[in-house]
Amino acid sequence: MRKQIAAANWKMNLTLQQGEALLDAILSRPHSLKENQQAVFAVPFPYLAMAQQKLAGKANVFVAAQNCYSKKSGAYTGEVSVEMLQSLGIQYVVLGHSERREYFNESNQLLADKVTICLAYQLLPIFCCGEPLAIREANTQNAYVAKQLEESLYHLSAEQLQKVVIAYEPIWAIGTGKTASSGQAQEMHAFIRRQLAEKYGAAIADTISILYGGSVKAANAVEILGQPDVDGGLVGGASLIADEFVAIINALK
Ligand code: PEP
Question: 212 alpha carbon to ligand 1 midpoint, in Å?
Answer without folding.
Answer: 9
